[in-house]
Write a structure and sequence with these properties.
The structure holds three protein chains of three kinds. Chain A contains five helices and no strands. Chain A is elongated and about 60 Å long. The termini of chain A are far apart. Chain B has one domain: Cytochrome C Oxidase, Chain A (Up-down Bundle), CATH 1.20.210.10. Helices cover 60% and strands 1% of the residues of chain B. A two-stranded antiparallel sheet of chain B has the order 1-2. In chain B, α8 packs parallel to α10 and α8 packs across α13. Chain C has two domains: 100 residues, no CATH class; 145 residues, Cupredoxins -  blue copper proteins (Immunoglobulin-like, Sandwich), CATH 2.60.40. Chain C contains four helices and ten strands; from the N terminus they run αααββββββββββα. In chain C, β6 and β7 form a beta hairpin. In chain C, α1 runs antiparallel to α2 and α2 runs antiparallel to α3. Chain C is elongated. The N and C termini of chain C lie far apart (95 Å). Classes of the chains: A mainly alpha, B mainly alpha, C alpha+beta. At the A-B interface, α1 and α4 of A face α5, α6, α7 and α8 of B.
Chain lengths: 217, 587, 276
């Protein structure tokens, strides 16, 4: 309404702040004087589910291509699964555990412990990615490259696609830690919940891809 | 402190300031809608220019023109024009204007929201789309030029690189990258639309009170969300085949231009077709559904009658959306795909004709018994109905594989998709523009000039595209740069000349439209009334153009459905959705 | 505020629009019924069946086309704004059910009916004793291979393909079965004899299309696709490529000559002689 001046404006990436703390309907919009209209909290969850649906379709296209390609031509040759991949899987599964723990601590109000476990989750995620790169290097050292065989093509492609999406997830985890949440439309707890849903999904997606790659080999 | 439940405080916010924030990197859905419409306007004229050159060559293949090296257009130049024509029209015009253009502008308003759910994401969607357009246009300027494999880019032609033809080098790579970027942009947009529709509807705006426009934007966004991810995957696979030596789509044993392609084997060209058409078929429904919603809306408004069979229309829209994912194989009847699958796809395709027919009957039912005003908006809406009938019926032929044996990849198909997409969908955009222009810009498009535009265009499109059916019946294959190879083709040349002349006249008429748009922006009759059409939906309750936050910070309340025209016992022949029941004047 | 006053000139606009729709419909129907541009006559039995299916589809879609365009023309004219009262109705459930069911039965029925011809073309293979011809498409020509007197196709290999030495399909000279294989750029078949085509491609996807056979089949590299037909009318027919294959797509043209068995035997002898 005219007269009351409350604004909350930030740029989503750099947190260049403006405003005096109490947001009106503003939030993560760009610009120093265009606060945002209010939207219900559940919209973020709707959006996340929709985003996950789109990602599912993307991976289903790749997975069905994998199955079709394997069934055709008789040039499919088994790509050995580097052992490190199993460790990476455990790391990723563990990170799903730590993220649950972190959120519980946040709920309990224990912010410092939340941050610690959240950092551990980030670390485990990055360790997973490093491990995937090690797996790639092991394969390429054995002479198995992207174009060597359709089975290796899919191995690299699927792990890269998953890795890219997981990297996005790690970015989201950092965002939860570093963005000034006081001046946002949602709370840090909500953001943490959203990030963790995405994270668990990435975990589950990895298990699916692993099963596909293992059965297919 | 932020209150979680409603996302924070009362809806008080100030408009953006500064040219860049207001007009370039704006997060205002209205500005973004206009940006998309502008991108589409530029693209449609570019696409038309390309088709102008194509038709020029088809009519007079031996003629020399000053703008070609050596005077003659080469076959590869024709094919490059054709590829970019199709790509630009399908993606940069038909996927943007009806959905991202009008949808962005009017969806939040029609549901009573002050913006999309994620305005920054919205801005990113537009600029990502712009980047994809620039990447694609860059294909014209690289060595080898634009690709020649059609908008469908079938491998191996699209996968083998320069060796399979001019333009198949860098040009094709840029095309693929541009398309991949476009897919990401579309996914972002779809996500925003759906979230907004689900979560931001104002009080009283139940699903049953949604205007047909919103329903079609909704279903279209769902189609986009589920389909573009598949296109993105396909593009990545094709790119890898081209640059990384993989063999997803390229089989072994290929000999091309005297060279044996020994480093590829085992891939399947059909795999690309499946992936592409799994996306491609929903894509064509993405192109037409918003237009159908707009037409329902306009037929109702300008006959002063409710939409006939609102629920059936919603059901038909959802049926078309769902079935749209089940029919992709009808593009592949003669591809070498299993003939048993072909049978299944054929039956599903015949079935999808049913909701389309239901919509047509309901459109007729909407205007029956009404009081029709023949302004430009209504003329284009009525034209849409005629064109949809014409274009849709040829689909019944193509859906039967035994008939498709003859008609596949011929001019009958070209006629079918042009009438439906290239004309009917565009007519809906015209109709929507004449309707919403006063709201968006505070001025009317000139009706007289508009009527001239309508008549030349309506007659012109029928003159241009109806004869293509006859070419198809005579067996004229498509994507031929000229009809000179054999006697039966040469015999069809007079019809090609006729089509070219009709096309030139129709294209010329579009400059009348362009003039109308730019003239009216500055000199058009002012829209002094907020609701000049006496329409019922929310956009007509706010000023023209609307303020930056649409409703001034006060969420509207909805009391009824969107098509309460000529309600018996009511004094006025329309009731705004926002009019409280006790304020409705009795007759 | 009451409803808007009747638009002046709405009668002339409505009339013009109605008249145009009727004219457009009439011209279209006339051109189709007069068959001014039409299929060439079919030369196979299944081709005639396909034509019958075309006729049925034309009938059904033609009736719908005429009725729908006329209904639109009539409705928009009759209900132009002349200051009349509007009849308010929101729909009619009975009508919805009826026209949904009718179109469903009609369209699905039409589709089911069409499958017979499709089944004949694709659900059954060639009968034993059919004349096998291998069709190899390339940028931008058609090659037709006959098995020769031994009735066997010799081995082919892509590394042996060489246009300059007259070996467009890569016949292996070391395979005895190849010696009598005849490779020609035009196709000839005996009348009333079933022919089995084995359609393949050397480079990109092409499509083998002969109008009079009512036959089209994509030639996909990496696949050998079988088709069969029995031509019943002698003559020379055009073969066109029907899948975009590159800059020469428009001129990838050949001929199919259907001749008597005697003439075909003679033709075959000449080709074999030229082969030596």
């Amino acid at each position: 309404m005219a007269g009351s001046i409350t604004e909350a404006v930030e740029i989503i990436d750099a947190g260049r702040g403006g405003g005096t703390g109490t947001p009106a309907g503003g939030g993560d919009d760009g610009g120093s004087s265009s606060p945002l209209p209010p939207i219900p909290r559940r919209a973020y969850f709707t959006a996340l589910q929709l985003g996950l649906a789109a990602i599912v379709m993307f991976f289903m296209a790749l997975a069905s291509s994998y199955i079709v390609r394997k069934g055709l031509g008789n040039d499919w040759q088994h790509t050995p699964m580097p052992t490190v991949v199993w460790f990476n899987t455990l790391i990723l599964l563990a990170s799903s555990g730590t993220i649950i723990l972190a959120r519980k601590k946040l709920e309990d109000g224990d912010r410092e412990v939340f941050r610690s476990w959240w950092w551990v989750t980030c670390g485990l995620g990055m360790l997973f990615l490093a491990g995937q790169i090690i797996a790639w290097r092991q394969l390429s050292a054995a002479g198995i490259l992207l174009s060597t065989n359709p089975s290796s093509s899919f191995f690299y492609l699927l792990t890269a696609a998953h890795g890219a999406h997981l990297a996005g997830g790690i970015f989201a985890l950092f965002y939860v830690l570093f963005r000034p949440w006081k001046r946002s439309r949602i709370s840090q707890a909500t953001a943490a919940e959203l990030a963790s849903i995405y994270w668990h999904f990435m975990d589950g997606l990895w298990v699916f891809l692993l099963v596909l790659l293992t059965l297919g080999r | 402190m932020v209150t979680e439940e409603n996302g924070g405080g009362h809806g008080n916010h100030r408009p953006p300031s500064g040219f860049i924030r207001k007009y370039v990197f704006s997060t205002d859905h209205k500005v973004i809608g206009i940006q998309y419409l502008s991108l589409a306007l530029f693209s449609v004229f570019l696409g038309m220019g390309l088709s102008f050159l194509m038709r020029l060559h088809l009519a007079w293949p031996a003629a020399k023109w000053p703008f070609f090296r050596g005077g003659l257009m080469t076959p590869e130049q024709y094919l490059a024009l054709m590829t970019m024509h199709g790509t630009i029209m399908v993606f940069m015009v038909l996927t943007t204007a009806p959905q991202s253009g009008f949808g962005n502008y009017f969806l939040p308003i029609q549901i009573g929201a002050s913006d999309m759910a994620f305005p920054v994401l919205n801005m990113l969607s537009f600029w990502t789309t712009m980047v994809s357009l620039l990447v694609m246009l860059a294909a014209f300027f690289v060595p080898g030029g634009a690709p020649i494999s059609g908008w469908t880019a079938y491998p191996p032609l699209s996968a083998l690189g320069e060796i399979s033809g001019p333009g198949q080098g860098t040009g094709q790579t840029l095309w693929i990258i541009g398309l991949a970027i476009f897919s990401v942009a579309s996914l972002m947009g779809a996500l925003n639309f759906i979230t907004t529709l689900i979560d931001l509807r104002t009080k009283g705006m139940t699903l049953g009170h949604l205007p047909m426009t919103c329903w079609t934007w909704f279903v279209t966004a769902i189609l986009g969300l589920l389909a573009f991810g598949v296109l993105l995957a396909a593009c990545i696979l094709l790119l890898l085949d081209r640059v990384a030596g993989t063999s997803f789509f390229i089989p072994g044993g290929i000999v091309i231009s005297g060279q044996v392609i020994a480093w590829h084997k085992g891939g399947s060209p059909l795999l690309w077709q499946h992936l592409f058409w799994f996306f491609g078929h929903p894509e064509v429904y993405i192109a037409i559904l918003p237009g159908m919603g707009m037409v329902s809306h306009l037929l109702s408004t300008f006959s002063r009658k409710p939409v006939f069979g609102y629920r059936a229309m919603v059901g038909a829209t959802c049926a078309i959306g769902f079935l749209g994912f089940c029919v992709w194989g009808h593009h592949m009847f003669v591809s070498g795909m299993s003939p048993y699958s072909a049978f299944a796809f054929s039956m599903l395709t015949m079935t999808i004709g049913v909701p389309s027919a239901v919509k047509t009957f309901n459109w007729l039912g909407t205007i029956w018994g009404g009081k029709i005003t023949f302004n430009c908006s209504m003329l284009f809406a009525l034209g849409f109905v005629s064109l949809f009938v014409s274009g849709g019926l040829s689909g019944l032929f193509l859906a039967q594989p035994s008939l498709d044996l003859y008609l596949h990849d011929g001019y009958f198909v070209v006629a079918h998709f042009h009438i439906i997409m290239g004309v009917a969908a565009i007519f809906a955009v015209f109709a929507g523009l004449y309707f919403w222009f006063p709201k968006m810009f505070g001025r009317f498009l000139h009706e007289g000039v508009g009527k001239v535009h309508f008549w030349i265009t309506f007659v012109g499109v029928y003159a241009t595209f109806m004869p293509m059916h006859f070419l198809g019946l005579a067996g004229n294959p498509r994507r031929y740069s000229q009809m000179t190879a054999g006697p039966f083709l040469r015999a069809l040349q007079p019809l090609h000349v006729f089509i070219t002349i009709a096309a030139f006249i129709t294209i010329a008429a579009q400059f009348i439209f362009l003039f109308n748009v730019f003239w009216s922006l500055f000199r058009g009759k002012e829209a002094k009334e907020m609701n000049p059409w006496h329409a019922t939906t929310l956009e007509w309750t706010i000023p023209s153009p609307p303020p930056f936050d649409n409703f001034g910070g006060v969420a509207p309340v909805i009391y009824r459905g969107p098509y309460e025209f000529s309600v018996p016992g009511v004094a006025d022949d329309y009731i705004l959705q926002t009019l409280a029941p006790d304020l409705v004047r009795k007759a | 505020m009451l409803s808007r006053p009747a638009e002046s000139g709405s009668t002339s606009t409505a009339l013009a629009l109605s008249v145009f729709l009727v004219l457009m419909t009439a011209v279209t129907v006339y051109i189709l019924m007069a068959k001014i541009w039409w299929f060439p006559p079919a030369i196979t039995a299944v081709g005639h069946e396909i034509d019958g299916q075309f006729a049925l589809t034309f009938l059904i879609t033609g009736v719908i086309f005429v009725l729908a365009q006329i209904a639109l023309a009539y409705t928009l004219f009759r209900f132009r704004d002349r200051g009349q009262k509007v009849t308010y109705f929101e729909g009619n459930n009975t009508m919805e059910v009826v026209w949904t069911l009718v179109t469903l039965v009609l369209f699905v029925g039409l589709g089911l009916y069409a499958q017979n011809a499709w089944a004949q073309v694709h659900f059954m293979g060639a009968a034993p004793g059919a004349l096998p011809i291998e069709v190899t498409a390339e940028q931008f020509a058609w090659n037709f291979r006959y098995a020769g007197p031994d009735g066997k196709f010799g081995r082919e290999s892509s590394d042996l393909v060489s246009a300059s030495t007259g070996n467009p399909v890569g016949l292996d000279p070391n395979d005895p079965a190849s010696k009598d294989d005849v490779v020609v750029p035009v196709m000839a078949v005996p009348v009333n004899r079933q022919v089995e085509l084995i359609i393949r491609s050397e480079d990109v996807t092409h499509s083998f299309f002969v109008r009079e056979l009512r036959l089209k089949q994509d030639a996909v590299p990496g696949m050998d696709i079988h088709m069969h037909f029995t031509a019943t009318v002698p003559g020379v027919y055009e073969i066109a490529c029907a899948e975009l294959c590159g800059l020469g797509h428009y001129r990838m043209h050949s001929t199919l000559t259907v001749m008597s068995q005697a003439d075909f035997n003679e033709w075959m002898k000449q080709q074999e002689a030229a082969n030596q």
